[in-house]
Model the fold of this input.
Amino acid sequence: MAFEANGIVSFYEDDYGHAVELLEDARNAFARAGARRREAGTAQKMAYMHRDRRQYLEAKRFFSEVGRIWIEIGYEERAVFVDCQAAIVLCMEGAYYDAEAEIIKAQHAFSQLNSRVGIAHAQLGLGHVHRGRSNLSKAEDFYLQSHQVLSRSGDGLSAIAATKGLGHVYRLQGNPDKAEKKYEEVLKFMGQYPDSEVLLGLAATRQSEGRHDEVERLLSEASAVFQKRGWEEDFPDYDHELLSLYRRIKSAAERDDNHYLKHITLLMMIVFAIAVPVFALITIPVWSLGLRAGLLPLPSLA
Done:
């Protein structure tokens, strides 16, 4: 359906308001037509969108709705997958223990369903959990296991999420060469839709190597992406490098915005200062001529 396809395009172009509207229209149309698989798939995309925007309550609501639909139409494996994705929201909120419990529960369910790909998704989630707790060696193991399966499954976006996780782990372990390689893989995969977090990670590795010109270029690119998407401080406290770089470019952007506003305000004041005397010079003589010609009434003194 065109609504759904255009909604996805709008999402990647950072036009989130339009994307939500189009996907909502598509979901409603599928629901009216009784196309429940398509309805669930579209609602799942909306859940991802809200998660990506850090709108956690909305993301949880959509994941819950999607999971219910999959269960109702007999797709247990997809329902478990949705539970696993919902647990990532908990991870993003910093609720690592709750996230781990939900992901392990999903992992057990995938095992009972003999789903290797499902288990790989659970391992990806556990990689996020352990990175959040700074258990970097465990995070690396989970990311590697996950990537090995997902890269062969045809799920490129999930595989690249494991690659991105490895980039962060290697950087935090003090291995900039390995981190840089992983980050560049992600940027190559994403093409014209660069990942701002990866740009910051790559800038951090270049900064550790003293490649300052490249650092500034990467920070400028990251800033441009954040300008489109909105400045949402969603980096965990444990990742001081990314948090520091993020705050640096956000502060610079705010200074630029204030500078721009000051220039606009000054320009408006200058225009107003010029316009008022000019308006007076034009209107007073015209009004005077109108009085003399009897075209305008004299003001009443009553």
Summary: Residues 1-13, 257-266, 298-302 have pLDDT under 50 and may be disordered. Residues 240-292 form the longest helix (53 residues). The CA atoms of residues 213 and 258 lie 26 Å apart. The two ends are 72 Å apart (CA to CA).
